[in-house]
Amino acid sequence: MSAHHEELQEIENAKHLWRNGGKWLFALLVAAALGYLGNVIYKGQVKDKNEKAAALASQVQGDATKLTELQQKFSQTAAAGQASLETAKSLFDAGKLDEAATQYRWVLANQKDALFQASAAKNLAVVLLQQKKFDDALTVLNTPVDESFAPIINETKGDVLTAQGKTKEASDAYKLALDKLPENSPNRELLQLKMAQL
Fold this sequence. Notes:
Layout: H1 2-57, H2 64-73, H3 78-93, H4 97-110, H5 114-130, H6 134-140, H7 150-163, H8 167-180, H9 187-196
Helix pairs in contact: 1-3, 3-4, 3-5, 4-5, 5-6, 5-7, 7-8, 8-9
């Protein structure tokens, strides 16, 4: 009889707990479990996507069709950004400036990584400098980049302004680059040389 009484008491306690906040506790536990499960699934999908992108990127090597497929299917991945930058450099080296510019613009539009953004902005400006599109180059160099990449952007601005014959502005840009470079940077001497030649 006492065991039966204890069972009834436990049932009553459970009902009381359920009525006085137990539903909310249960809902909270379910939400936490679903959140954890969603996070695990999301990380698995990201890993799978990155692996597929890397496999496709390894096949690009100058193949425009493969690069386009990579950019369309995996536009946000580091593999797509890296392959696009490498392709742009090859096109630049081959003298295909318009095609190189197209790839650098794609990186700027689709990649959010600070290194990719700075690299694409700097290199696109160099392409435009080669094409003597000075204003376009300066516009590209106004792309917001992480502060750690400011020296290379300012140095390239100095190069563009030098090509325009704007020595005062070029000197200011080089000085900005020099001021933000670490003391032990090997690029300091080159910047000082550029400033001395103005």
